[in-house]
Every structure is written in C-alpha cells, then in structure tokens.
Design a protein that fits this description.
The chain has 230 residues and is of the alpha+beta class. The protein folds into 2 domains: 71 residues, no CATH class; 108 residues, 3-Layer(aba) Sandwich (Glutaredoxin). The chain contains 7 helices and 6 strands. The protein has a 6-stranded mixed sheet with strand order 4-3-2-1-5-6, sandwiched between helices. The protein is elongated. The relative contact order is 0.15. Bound molecules: glutathione (GSH). Glutathione binds next to helix 5.
C-alpha cells in the first residue's frame, strides 16, 4: 500500500517541479484516456450504426392478448400485470391508457426502480420470487439475452411476459379489455384515425421519445447534432 505521507516526503510538490510531466501532456493524456473509456463504455451500453447513431434494439416479446380460439392469452380481469418505471416515457403511455380506459381494477401495476449498482431495474419487494426485472425476464424466457426493459405486460397465470413493446401494449389495453373497463366505449385508436395516429406516432417516436436517447447515446458530433435538431 502507498503511504502518501512518505511519498510526499520523497517528492515534495513544491521542490521537485522539474520531475513532473508538462501540464499540456497531462491534459492530452487525460482527454485521450477518458475518450477511449467513454467509447468503450458506450459501445457496450448503446448499439450504434457505423456513423455513431444510436440504434434501439427492437422489443423481442410480442404476443397479443385476444379472444381468438387457441390464443393462450385470453382477456381476463386480474390476470395481467404491468411492470413500469416512472422515469420511462414508454411506460408512461401504458399507464395513461390504463387510466383513460379505467382499467385500474382489472390490470395491476408494480413500479420498478433503477439500480445504480446493477445498472438495471429492481423490485421494491420480491415479485414472483424475483428481485430484479432481469430475473423476471429469465423466469419467462430462460436464457433471454436481450435488454430487460419496461414496460412489461406480465401474465400471472402462465408466469410469462406477454409483451414488452409499449406501442403494442397500449393497443391491447385499448381494445381487448372493454368487458372490464370503466370507460369501455372510449376508443383511443378508431379505424378512421388510425392512419393519422400512426403517422404522429412515428414522428414522435423518432424525434422526441427516441430522440432523447439518440442525443444521449450519439457517438459522433454529427449524429448528436442531427438527433438534436430533428
Ligand atoms: N420499445 C420499448 C422500449 C422500452 C425502453 O427502452 N425502456 C427503457 C426505459 S425508458 C428500459 O427499460 N431500459 C433498460 C435497458 O435498456 O436495459 C417500448 O416502447 O416498450
């Protein structure tokens, strides 16, 4: 172990000025190390294309709840559960649709918290025997290697994730639970407006919701500027 006092005695800062690296070199070295480390960290954290633009991996669990024969995910009250993070814009829209449709009694919710230690979502108390969202994904999909994102629509009966794509979860909440919804006649995705809604969805997704990520995770100045100005 280094004893700082002995070290300072041997090389007093004030007397051995000539032994130190020139400040310019230290700054250059510091910048180089930090930039390399940052690139390494970002390459692990955020998938990107060749020009450094953040590319969001697509959600992998995409089943649908519905009344068709043979569908293992039939609509029911009390069977499905939403896992959300309150800082997540994708989760917000599932909470908003659940509230607008009056599905609070039919679909339960748990709020997960971000962990600064593990870098993932954790439960405030164990759920389905799991302490983290990653454990829940593993319970549903053994060997799952994708990102463990919220929101998650969970089936308590089969102990599986029905869907982890918010754009699809809200479509299901809008149309498949009317039997149990307080506001069953409210249709947030009417046939005649579908085209317009899809157009706005695409625009808002690319430049606002995902735009925040594209700015934060941009790995070149050009891609940052583009995401920022869109
Ligand atoms: N396409 C997904 C994206 C969800 C998403 O990216 N959620 C973020 C929080 S805002 C997340 O859970 N990230 C954790 C991770 O990527 O490990 C959706 O809309 O449901």
């Amino acid at each position: 172990m280094i004893n700082i006092r002995n070290f300072q005695k041997k090389i007093p800062l004030t007397q051995n000025k000539g032994n130190f690296l020139p400040p310019k070199l230290i700054i250059k070295l510091g910048k180089f190390v930090w930039t390399e480390l940052w690139h390494l960290m970002m390459s692990r954290l955020a998938p990107r294309n060749q020009s450094g633009d953040y590319i969001r991996p697509s959600s992998q669990l995409r089943s649908f709840i519905g009344t068709e024969e043979g569908n293992p995910y039939q609509p029911a009250a009390g069977r499905y559960h939403l896992y959300v993070g309150l800082s997540c814009p994708w989760a917000h829209r599932t909470l908003i649709v659940r509230a607008l449709k009056g599905l609070e009694a039919a679909i339960s919710v748990s709020v997960v918290s971000p962990s600064a230690v593990s870098g993932g979502w954790v439960f405030n108390q164990p759920e389905e025997g799991c302490h983290t969202l990653a454990e829940l994904y593993e319970l549903s999909e053994p060997g799952y290697s994708g990102r463990c994102t919220v929101p998650v629509l969970w089936d308590k009966q089969t102990k599986t994730i029905v869907n982890n794509e918010s754009a699809e979860i809200i479509v299901m909440l809008n149309s498949e639970f009317n039997e149990f919804a307080v506001n069953s006649t409210l249709n947030l995705y009417p046939e005649e407006l579908k085209q317009k809604i899809d157009w706005w969805n695409e625009k808002i997704y690319t430049s606002v919701n995902n735009g925040v990520y594209r700015c934060c995770f941009a790995q070149s100045q050009e891609t940052y500027n583009q995401a920022c100005n869109e």
